[in-house]
Amino acid sequence: MPPNGQTESLALPPHLQAILAAEYPRFTDAEMARRRRAIADLLAEGGLDHLVFCGANRFGSSVQWLTGWPVTAEAVGVFTPGETDAMFVQHVNHVPLAQKLAAPAQVAWGGASSIGCAIAALEKRGARDGRLGVVGPMTFEQHTMLSARFGAVANLNRRYLQLRQIKSPEEIDWMRIGAALTDRGAIALRDGLRPGLTERDLADLVERSYIRLGGTNVIHFFGVTAMAAPGLGVPPQFVANRKVERGDVVVTEISAAFWEHPGQVLRSFTVDSNPSELFRDLHAVADAAFDAVAAVLKDGATPQQVIDAASVIEAAGFTIIDDLLHGYGGGYLPPILGSRSRPSAHVPDEPFRAGMVVVIQPNVVTRDGKAGVQTGEMVLVTATGIEPFHNMPRGFLSV
Q1: Can you name the residues that pair with 226 across neighbouring β-strands?
Q2: In whole angstroms, what is the distance from residue 269 CA to residue 288 CA?
Q3: Distance CA 60, CA 94 (A)
Q4: Can you tell me whether residue 233 is helix, strand or coil?
């Protein structure tokens, strides 16, 4: 029997269950062709002939988006409109699976230098100086080799991120699976949280709930502190070896992914006690901020409108540490917004558009940053408002 009485399936419609059940799930040929057209248009817009796309150490979403291969140690690909992609991966033992998942790309071992192999492939394709674009986290050495052979290389990362902001129906479906897996992790934490567990135990509760169903961990941040003498306002990024005690508050941010497609849930719990007056007030403001942002967020809404809506935080005498809202899916995407008291690095003029996926996550904290809560989740922006991905109940729960 699974822990906490959970079943071994997710509450998903049949077409999503079929994706989840596949040996290695794949997007349709039509969806992959849509992506290739978008990149071809991007190259044409810049007067470019070829794209080099790359990733390393499980980072670099363009590789998976274009080929279906999740980056492991290193991958460098060459995209030319009308031709089959060439892709070179490290290490040699990763090649067989990459050839299977990235088909019809021509996948080979990158040998001593994957970028060197990509340069050779570009030469065979007649690449010309100044007609190359790049997407992905390219190293200094890779860029030096590429530019030495082909001159100035156009950085297309910003335009690529803009492509990823609007999700296709198939991408949204995959993110619904990621959201269901994330909900499972949050529910496992809620149902298993008790005094005496360490933060490492909390990580085990969360990950064990979805790993056997095909989920992978993106993050599980836990902020654990005593309500009577709080000492932190936002969940840290690494799990401590502290024990949970009666009277603690546990503030968490959880993301599990189905391949590259995650969900995200943020919740706060009190342990074996009711919320103190301070924490009750903090969470009431966090709920109000979430509702205020959700009320204005739709196609055509501006980032500044979202920031203005969240001013209930400052009106109550509080502030935030974490971002108020960010895009999601294919990376931590723009817009990335703060609040009036914790400004954004950049507030774009571009409005929200239907098909964007964002996380609303008001992390309401005291001005000294010593006490805080978090609530929120991933939502889909629509023509008239937002559509939730998650079924994990909202609210400040005592467990």
Answers
A1: 248
A2: 17
A3: 17
A4: coil
Whole-model pTM: value is: 0.94
DSSP letter assigned to residue 126: T
Domain 29-165 homologous superfamily, CATH: Creatinase/prolidase N-terminal domain (3.40.350.10)
Residue boundaries of the structural domains of the chain:
29-165, 169-398
Residue 79 is inside which H or E element, if any? Answer: strand 74-79
3-state SS assignment for residue 328 = strand
Instruction: Say whether 15 sits in a helix, a strand or coil.
Output: helix
DSSP class per residue in 20-67: HHSSS----HHHHHHHHHHHHHHHHHTT-SEEEEEEETTB-HHHHHHH
What is the pLDDT at residue 8?
56
At 4 the pLDDT is: 42
Helices (H), the chain: 14-21, 29-45, 61-67, 95-101, 114-124, 140-150, 157-165, 169-192, 199-211, 277-296, 303-309, 312-315
Mean pLDDT split into 10-residue runs, the chain, 399 residues: 48 93 96 97 97 91 95 96 97 96 96 97 97 96 97 96 97 98 98 97 97 96 97 96 96 97 98 97 98 98 98 98 97 96 94 98 98 98 98 94
Pairing assessment for the beta strands 86-90 and 106-109 based on DSSP bridges? parallel
| Level-2 CATH architecture, domain 169-398 | Alpha-Beta Complex (3.90)
Task: Identify the bridge partners of residue 255 per DSSP, sorted by sequence position.
Answer: 219
pLDDT reported for residue 58: 81
Question: Measuring CA to CA, which residue among 114, 148, 147 is closest to residue 133?
Answer: 147
- Using DSSP, state whether 88 is helix, strand or coil: strand
